[in-house]
Specification:
The structure holds two protein chains of two kinds. Helices cover about 20% and strands about 40% of the residues of chain A. By secondary structure, chain A is of the alpha/beta class. Chain A starts with a helix and ends with a helix. Chains A and B meet through α7 and α8 of A and α2, β7, α3 and β8 of B. The complex binds adenosine-5'-triphosphate and magnesium ion (MG).
């Protein structure tokens, strides 16, 4: 039995760094890499503003002194109907059975050395999943990857590699956990030419948990990439999603929904980097905050000087449903090219009284009218999630928050 | 139920601090059709909103009862449950809320549990046919991207589905093409011929006599400057169509 199982090491604090990695990792080679990653976590800045009047958490000073790390965890539950060489397996299996394939994608979309939380995820990576779709193969049914959080901190790494012309839909859910649960993970998508990947990330952790995610995709030429993100659970959720467009003809979409209620804090950063032209991106975000819920959203669109013919849109709408709730929403467009189409629109506001009156004038009680309007408000993003069943689950979770 | 009818007595209301309604007396009896006409800005919509409880319209005096029940004390949804319906001049769009779900929620609110979802669906299809509405509207978002005429038809569909005791139609006829107007007229007529709608009283706010050709009014009221200044039969609408409001204004000034 590995020593780490017998004695979980408590507390991710600089003083413990050496001991943590020693106990966590038995391979000397990997130990060095993990040590380096942990040092990077401590050294790097999150890039996000500190705590303030509304937002109560400093992402650069997270208290991880009670986070329990262990190398062994239960692998994710994976359900898939695969054919013609497609692979969907947990990360440990992938390392054993498909090391070369894995190597081609692992760490190629997320540069952890510059990312605080990706570094942390790498330092203690203890679970994960790998999806591979060979050239020209279409996986018709969604591939489902379900992570369950527990007492042991979870550091999942999910990797999708879709070859030229491959098609797949991946639904990645994160659930479970309790007060004190900690999850810090990476999702990476790498595709070849003309591939089409639809990836849904749904976080429904228990209250009291914390969830930190770094997500990135590198679509190939003429590839289609749709990333739908629902951050619904946990007390603290900080996640970034980034699409790097380095090939022409890319059609990329990011759709995100979140709704902090109670004392939940949600921090989301989306970035689309148009490094070459003749590509399209669409970012659509719908959020609401209720109770004392706090949300921060930063939506980046960068269009490089030579990325002529780019077409980028960013639409971000937020609803404030209570006095103590707060939403801080910042669209940030940096456009260096001149022959581009770029659109952005952002709103933050309360519910529309005319809409409420219209519904109540039909006999619908105010509370119910508000609920229907808020749920309707999320629909354009909910619509982007791949299956009816998943959409229903997201609706139910949102309904429970605004009900 | 002391006195049946939608009874408005000396109703005064203000909007954004301006007194708009300056004492309205009007009674719509069950099964009767009253038309309300008047120049732009005279306060017709203000009356409709004040009766249905829009929070922006403050009633400063007078009474309004619906079959004996005091409307003015009730929240908007309770007024609807009491049997009042307003067809909006400018219906709100509510993206994300499907027409079918909204209609079902409204029907359930006003008449809880009286129809199974399947029967409700059948009812919808029947009423939509009458209004020449495509069933695909049921899957669309409420008034979202609807044309002006489509919005008005949807108001009429709601009227048919909710079958209220009293219905105020605020310029439902405005912006309708000839066919749409006929469809609306037929829908209202069908409702008045049905058991559910026979006793419904109507207050039809309009600028034109043409809708009154489809739904014959028992009385026509003319509002100017927040007051009802003239009342008459169906022919009063034709008179206004011909002469405009100037003549009526002159009459008032002569009296004053
Ligand atoms: N929200 C508001 N704020 C300020 N004034 C208002 C508001 N709503 C209505 N008014 C004013 O109240 C008066 C009556 O308006 P109302 O909408 O009732 O007229 P109307 O008779 O329905 O006119 P129309 O035939 O054009 O529909 C107008 O002078 C209008 O400008
Ligand atoms: Mg009006």
């Amino acid at each position: 039995m590995p020593s780490s199982l017998a004695a979980p090491v408590l507390g991710i604090v600089p003083e413990n760094a050496e001991a943590l990695v020693q106990r966590f990792e038995t391979s000397p080679l990997l130990r060095a890499a993990r040590s380096e990653a942990l040092a990077a976590y401590f050294a790097l800045a999150s890039g996000r503003a500190p705590a303030g009047r509304y937002w109560k958490v400093d992402l650069d000073a997270l208290d991880l002194s009670r986070v329990e790390v262990r190398a062994e965890t239960t692998p994710p539950r994976i359900a898939a109907t695969l054919s013609r060489g497609a692979i969907a397996c947990d990360l440990a299996t992938a390392r054993r059975a498909h090391p070369q394939l894995l190597e081609r994608a692992l760490g190629t979309a997320v540069d952890a050395r510059t990312r605080k939380f990706a570094s942390l995820a790498n330092a203690f990576g203890n679970t994960g999943a790998f999806v591979y779709v060979p050239a020209g193969v279409s996986v018709d049914n969604p591939i489902e990857i379900a992570y369950a959080a527990g007492e042991i901190a979870l550091f999942p790494h999910t990797i999708v590699l879709a070859e030229a012309g491959a098609r797949c839909t991946v639904i990645c859910t994160l659930e479970g956990g309790a007060e004190g649960s900690f999850v810090c993970g990476i999702d990476e998508i790498v595709t070849g030419e003309r591939a089409s990947v639809s990836f849904a990330s749904v976080q429904m952790l228990a209250l009291g948990a914390r969830s930190l995610f770094t997500r990135a995709a590198r679509p190939g030429k003429d590839a289609h990439l749709a990333w739908a993100i629902a951050e619904l659970g946990a007390d603290l959720c900080a996640s970034t999603v980034e699409i790097e467009i380095e090939q022409t003809g890319v059609d990329a979409q990011i759709a995100a929904v979140f709704c902090p209620s109670g004392d939940q804090h949600v921090d989301l950063v989306s970035s689309v980097d148009h490094r070459v032209g003749q590509a399209r991106s669409e970012t659509i975000v719908r959020s609401a905050a209720t109770g004392s819920g706090q949300a921060r959203y930063l939506g980046n669109i960068n269009i490089a000087a030579h990325a002529q013919g780019s077409n980028a849109s960013l639409r971000d709408d937020a609803l404030l449903l209570s006095k103590k709730a707060h939403v801080d929403s910042v669209p940030a467009l940096e456009i260096a090219a001149n022959d581009v189409k770029a659109y952005h629109g952002a709103t933050v506001g309360a519910l529309d009284e005319e809409q409420i009156f219209y519904m109540t004038s039909r006999g619908i009680e105010r509370d119910e009218a508000e609920r229907m309007i808020v749920l309707g408000f999320f629909e354009p993003v909910i619509d982007r999630f791949p299956t009816r069943e998943l959409r229903e689950r997201i609706r139910a979770a949102l309904q429970a928050k605004v009900g | 139920m002391s006195e049946p009818g939608l009874r408005i007595h000396d109703l005064r209301a203000s909007v954004a601090g301006n007194d708009i309604l300056k004492g309205i007396d009007l009674t719509v009896e069950p099964g009767k059709v009253h038309a309300l006409m008047g120049p732009n800005g005279s306060g017709k919509s203000t009356l409709a909103f004040s009766l249905s409880g829009h929070p922006g319209y403050v009633v400063t005096g007078g009474t309004a009862t619906l079959d004996g029940e005091n409307l003015l004390d009730l929240l908007p949804d309770k007024r609807a449950k009491a049997g009042l319906f307003l067809s909006f001049q400018y219906p709100a769009a509510i993206p994300g809320v499907k027409v079918a779900n909204f209609l079902y929620a409204a029907r359930q609110a006003v008449r809880p549990g009286d129809l199974t979802p399947a029967k409700f669906r059948a009812l919808l299809v029947e009423k939509m046919e009458l209004l020449d509405m495509d069933p695909t509207f049921l899957g669309r978002y409420l008034n979202d991207g609807f044309s002006g005429g489509e919005k008005k038809r949807l108001e009429m569909l709601q009227l048919a589905v909710l079958a209220p005791r009293y219905a105020i139609l605020d310029e439902t006829d405005s912006g309708l093409d000839v066919d749409a107007l006929r469809a609306v007229g037929e829908s209202v007529r069908a409702m008045r011929d049905s058991d559910e709608g026979r006793a419904t009283g109507f207050l039809i706010i309009t600028h034109y006599p043409r809708i009154l050709h489809h739904v014959k009014p028992d009385a026509v009221h003319v509002m100017v400057g927040g007051r009802i200044v003239k009342q008459g039969g169906a022919d009063l609408a034709e008179l206004i169509e011909r002469d405009g409001y100037d003549k009526i204004r002159e009459e008032i000034e002569a009296i004053a």
